[in-house]
Amino acid sequence: MATERPSFELAKGINGLDKIVLRESRGRSAEVYLYGGHVTSWKNENGEELLYLSSKAIFKPPKPIRGGIPLCFPQFSNLGTLESHGFARNRIWEVDANPPPLPSNSSSNGFVDLILRPTEDDLKTWPHNFEFRLRVALGSEGELTLTSRIRNTNSDGKQFTFTFAYHTYFSVSDISEVRVEGLETLDYLDNLKNRERFTEQGDAITFESEIDKIYLSTPTKIAILDHEKKRTFVVRKDGLADAVVWNPWDKKSKSISDLGDEDYKQMLCVEAAAIERPITLKPGEEWKGRLELSAVPSSYSSGQLDPKKVLQ
Ligand code: TA6
């Protein structure tokens, strides 16, 4: 395997926070803040933003950035004793100058490796040493790939357990014109009903009210079809069995201070995640979870991503 060299620019972002910019010759780009290891932008060759980022996002620690791709680790939501969605999304990450090699199956135009290790304070609330390596890559077809490698570096022989999500906020033209394929007929836990378990109906998912569901044992491929934009986002994932679908709708939006009241119409979270079966690592063990996002002209017809027809 040829040695890959990272190619990125280091720049100053909002409030002077450091950010990494990945660019390719046809104008596609991506941006990652070291604050949170947080992807805040992914643009296509026409310079169109593909991720939703709130105009009210507060780029100031410790408030996580609203929009883009927050990383939920080591805890999803309130499923544990830590702050909601864990602490990785509001820590300052570093560029990892010397990451272990990562085999890639697509040629990338630019990529960067980041690393997060626990602070002394983190060890007080979550007493585990870890190395969380994140590679963000912009592929030759404009696809955005995030690969997380989390290693248990405890020297006391203790294993640890975590839940995880790439809490991706997609930019959509109008939520009522969007449908999601690949999750129909699956079981889900409904966060709006004390995480009770239900089974999804057979049609593609459409949106007309608040939704907050954790779909279980999902296929490796999910499609988000934006009828108005004639654009389909394809989410491919590895090592991440679950998929969360979230839209706060009008009432909940008003209670979220860093989200515009009407912004729920232009966003949809579809989050590749490991929640139902938390990941346990013994010292020296490493887990890998990969997310690949692409945006293609809509050509999927309904049912093409029926989970029964998609290879796991
Ligand atoms: O992933 C869905 C969810 O857990 C919702 O329950 C929701 O409130 C949301 O994430 C946003 O969480 P945050 O902590 O970023 O406000």
TrEMBL record:
CDD domains: D-hex-6-P-epi_like
GO cellular component, one term: cytoplasm
Keywords in alphabetical order: Isomerase
Domain of life, per lineage: Eukaryota
Reaction catalyzed: alpha-D-glucose 6-phosphate = beta-D-glucose 6-phosphate
EC supergroup of this enzyme: isomerase
Alphabetical GO biological process terms: carbohydrate metabolic process
UniProt entry tagged with the keyword Membrane: no
InterPro entries xrefs: Aldose_1/G6P_1-epimerase, G6P_1-epimerase, Gal_mutarotase_sf_dom, GH-type_carb-bd
GO molecular function: carbohydrate binding; glucose-6-phosphate 1-epimerase activity
UniProt name for this protein: glucose-6-phosphate 1-epimerase
Protein's organism: Eutrema salsugineum
Lineage of producing organism: Eukaryota, Viridiplantae, Streptophyta, Embryophyta, Tracheophyta
